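Q: what sequence does this backbone want?
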């Protein structure tokens, strides 16, 4: 099948307030978001949807749809991210979470991994007091305070090195991030991978809190409440890298089977939480047990949190993650106690 995807960068430039614009032409913002991240393949989109998006961006369908260009995945060493919502190199990644769900820890671990791979890390300091940013600030290569300062640094450094650039949603709302990305594109700098966080926790209530994204990491209140960290929702998080032509078929197959198992596990868990495991249909007990083991395996100790948890951090290669998840779904860990799968790296 021809490798096609939406030109997210073009949408971001041409339609800053995509939520309102989409509604104005009868499009569901969630549909637009899923098309941007690749959760809905462009090949399955209705023609009228693509025509409406092209109209909003004031471009042709040929401009809106990119053909034959592969999106490069960057491994983070974080099992649940690499499996369900891979990092798109040079793209824009949005973290959607309320305070206390661990988004800054996930961001810090991701940036730490990218630094190990030669990236330069840059943070645009948000206005206001955010004590929770202190640990992140200490680990950044550079902290800038204005968009112009960010532009000067990224324009110079981005010609020779890959950059991981982080900013708060407050800079998105003002339009500063959009302006920055346009200016960098104008001079041909495409080596900047942008991470957007929401320190106030308002993004959870928005359909498209950051505009078009290549990758969405959606955090889950239930996982956080049960201390299943990183509390990234494996069903709502997604990435344009997941489009079939961009991803290894083995990865795609395991990812889809894992999502199916976790989706059913969550349904069964609601029964167990009310009535106990004894009320599960006999045919569903195995599904419940394996879903529980998979969810537990996806917890992970982070290097950046070692001083707080006293537990050694682990990075897990994508290949190891895929192999481990396959083993869990095939029943190879059915006899392993749940506690032995909690906050580990790869399977022993």
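A:
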């Amino acid at each position: 099948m021809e490798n096609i995807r939406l030109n997210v960068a073009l949408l971001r430039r041409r339609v800053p307030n995509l939520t309102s614009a989409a509604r104005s032409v009868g499009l569901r913002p969630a549909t637009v978001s899923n098309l941007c991240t690749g959760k809905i393949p462009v090949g399955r989109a209705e023609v009228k949807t693509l025509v409406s998006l092209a109209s909003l961006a004031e471009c042709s369908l040929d401009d809106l749809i990119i053909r034959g260009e592969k999106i490069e995945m960057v491994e983070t060493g974080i099992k649940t991210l690499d499996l369900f919502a891979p990092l798109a190199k040079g793209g824009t990644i949005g973290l959607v979470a309320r305070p206390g769900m661990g988004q800054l820890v996930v961001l810090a671990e991701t940036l730490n991994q990218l630094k190990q791979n030669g990236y330069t890390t840059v943070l645009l300091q948000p206005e206001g007091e955010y004590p929770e940013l202190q640990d992140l600030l200490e680990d950044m290569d550079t902290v800038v305070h204005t968009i112009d300062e960010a532009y000067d640094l990224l324009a110079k450094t981005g010609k020779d090195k890959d950059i991981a650039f982080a900013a708060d949603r407050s800079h998105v709302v003002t339009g500063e991030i959009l302006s920055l990305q346009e200016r960098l594109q104008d001079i041909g700098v495409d080596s900047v991978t942008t991470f957007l966080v929401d320190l106030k926790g308002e993004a959870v209530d928005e359909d498209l809190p950051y505009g078009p994204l290549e990758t969405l990491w959606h955090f889950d209140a239930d996982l956080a409440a049960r201390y299943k960290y990183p509390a990234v929702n494996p069903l709502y998080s997604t990435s344009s890298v997941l489009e079939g032509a961009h991803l290894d078929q083995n990865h795609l197959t395991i990812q889809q089977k894992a999502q199916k198992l976790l989706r059913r596990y969550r349904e069964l868990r609601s029964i167990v939480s009310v009535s106990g495991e004894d009320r599960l249909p006999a045919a569903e007990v195995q599904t419940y047990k394996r879903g529980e083991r998979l969810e537990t395996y996806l917890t992970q100790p982070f290097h950046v949190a070692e001083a707080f948890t006293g537990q050694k951090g682990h990075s897990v290669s994508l290949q190891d993650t895929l192999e481990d998840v396959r083993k869990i779904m095939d029943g190879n860990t059915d006899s392993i106690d749940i506690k032995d799968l909690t906050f580990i790296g790869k399977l022993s």
